Structure formats: structure tokens, C-alpha cells
Amino acid sequence: MATSTTIPAVSAAIVAAVAAAAPGLQVTDGRPQDSMLMRESVWVGDVTGTSTIPVMKAGRKIREERYQVEVWHWIAKPRGTLAEVRARAIALWNLSASALADDPRLGALDGVQWATEGDFELRSDFAAEGPWAALRSTVSVVARLS
To answer: What is the pTM of this model?
Structure first.
């Protein structure tokens, strides 16, 4: 059982799973700089959550982490339509959600009980270069730490 937070390992596993599902797609841990951001990109963003002691016992306490990891699916397309960028953002989200559904323990990461898709939000608009869409999904994680 893991003895410290699983957040870095989970972030890395999400990046690896999405990259394996979509070779050639820009997939990063953290948003790329503007100058490095490609027209199609997926990145792992912020994390929010809680840590509790689920069972009281003598000695060292087992800690339970419950947290959400943001996964961003970004599309920008010159001379396209909002419908096109929205559809492509959803397609990228389906890739990452499918990779997670295939392996909800993220390769049996130490301490991870499960990771599954949670909330999502799709935003889109026009920029000077054309339409863009950003789909933010969350991966809900439960982990036990000794």
C-alpha cells in the first residue's frame, strides 16, 4: 500500500494512457506554454480533493484520498466551425475516457482503488484565428495510503 500521495503517479498514468490511445497527439502533464500548444492537445490540469482516516485503529492510521484530476481536451481550428471543434473535443474526450474505462486501476498503481470519469464541461468560442473548444473532464480517484 502506498505511503504517500498517489497524485503524481495518477497524473503520469493518465498521460501515458491517453498518449497510448492516440499516438501523435500532444499529451502533457500540465498545460503547454502558448508557443508550444498544438491545435489538438490533451493535458492533465489541477487536482482537488480530500484526505480522511476511514477506520480508527491503534498505531499508524490508514489514510484515504479522494480527489479529482482535471483533464483538458483542447481543439483550435482555423476556418472551421464551432460544431467541428466541439465534435473533435468530444472525440478526444471519448479516447481518454475509453482508456480509463479499460483500466480503472491505472495499471494497478500502488494504493489506487479506482479512477473513473466524473464531471465534464465543454466550452467553445471564436478567436481571431478561428473557433476553439475546450472540454474539461475530471477523473475521480480513490486511493488508500498506509
So the answer is: 0.91
